[in-house]
Design goal:
Layout (H helix, E strand, L loop, with lengths): L2 H11 L14 E6 L4 H11 L3 E7 L3 H15 L4 E3 L3 H4 L6 E4 L6 H10 L3 E4 L7 H10 L17 H5 L31 H12 L6 E7 L12 E8 L3 E8 L13 E4 L4 E5 L2 E5 L5 E6 L14 H9 L1
Parallel strand pairs: 1-2, 1-4, 2-3, 4-5
Antiparallel strand pairs: 6-7, 7-8, 9-10, 10-11, 11-12
């Protein structure tokens, strides 16, 4: 079945599959899918969270799976089950939720299948591989250089990793992180780190849908086979004269406001600069008026992002 038809079919089947809220006193039992990096952090954090238990961890790479399972079992003080196929977790009635940290092309299909099986879903950004998949998901809820063809590593189930994406021969510069920069699997920097910052801006400005979007950029730093811009500026215009400007400079190490990534709200009577570690409020004379910073400073470019924000995300879920 072609990807578009697959997502449309399973999303239709999943319409109305929404579970009611749980009491904070109830235990949530989860399976974590996609463990190389972010998923392992999520699994260990769930394992340490009150009223949560990691029953299983899942990855198509057996080496990654074994390493993560050992770390999560140690953090939890209880052995976790290992799965090569996340669908086995959907068949397990003892598992309440699927935690999805696999590549972008798996986000919507896995989430929709999980909801169709009656599971809660904790989904890493972005919600889909494209805007339409994001809409279908909402409906269901109510290396530098050119890669080379290479043999598939013996420890990797490459066919299952590709899943609903168009299948292509294995190349040595895709797994485990650089899939972000290829269109059949990833969504580029704007839907990688940009998603977080744009959401913060929307919350801060109190806006929802934009009325106009303009964008410019390109891939300038390297002559490689990656398919998304390394330098990009996107402008989102909203009613009431409110504007969000996202700047992505993946290959340029210059910090902005002393931060590797973050958000600046520039207002008529002052400004706020914020990132994962907290915020600082300035008046029009650049004097600090107020600040609130996290006790544990994080690395904004750490792809595992094991910091206070992760714990807050999981506690909120």
């Amino acid at each position: 079945m072609k990807r578009r038809r697959f997502v449309k079919t399973v999303s239709s089947a999943g319409l109305g599959i929404i579970l009611g809220p749980r009491s904070p006193a109830e235990k949530v039992v989860v399976c974590v899918m996609g463990l190389n990096g972010r998923g392992s952090v999520l699994a260990k954090t769930f394992a340490k969270t009150a009223n949560a238990e990691v029953a299983a961890v899942c990855d198509v790479d057996t080496a990654v799976l074994a390493k993560a399972a050992a770390a999560v079992s140690e953090a939890q003080g209880k052995q976790v089950k290992t799965l090569g196929d996340f669908r086995r977790a959907l068949d397990d009635k003892s598992i309440d939720a699927l935690v999805i940290a696999a590549p972008d092309h798996w986000h919507a299909p896995a989430a929709i299948l999980a909801m169709s099986a009656g599971k809660h879903v904790y989904l890493e950004k972005p919600c889909g591989h494209n805007a339409r998949e994001g809409e279908l998901l909402v409906d269901a809820r109510g290396t530098i250089g050119r890669g080379k063809a290479a043999p598939v590593p013996a420890n990797l189930d490459y066919d299952l990793w590709q899943g609903p994406a168009p299948h292509t021969p294995y190349h040595d510069n895709v797994i485990h992180y650089n899939w972000h920069w290829f269109r059949r699997w990833g969504t580029g920097e704007i839907c990688n780190n940009g998603t977080h910052e744009i959401d913060v801006c929307r919350w801060a400005l109190g806006v929802d849908r934009c009325s106009r979007v303009t964008s410019t950029g390109g891939r300038y730093h390297f002559d490689d086979d990656w398919e998304f811009p390394d330098s990009q500026e996107a402008v989102f215009e909203f009613a009431g004269g409110k504007t969000i400007i996202w700047q992505g400079q993946s290959c340029n190490g210059l910090t902005t406001f002393g931060r590797e990534r973050g958000t600046a709200i520039l207002g008529t009577t002052g400004s706020v600069v914020m990132d994962r570690d907290g915020y600082v409020v300035y008046d029009l004379k650049n004097q600090v008026v107020k600040q609130s910073l996290a006790t544990q400073a994080g690395d904004g470019l750490n792809i595992s992002a094991d910091d206070d924000m992760t714990h807050l995300h999981i506690a909120n879920f």
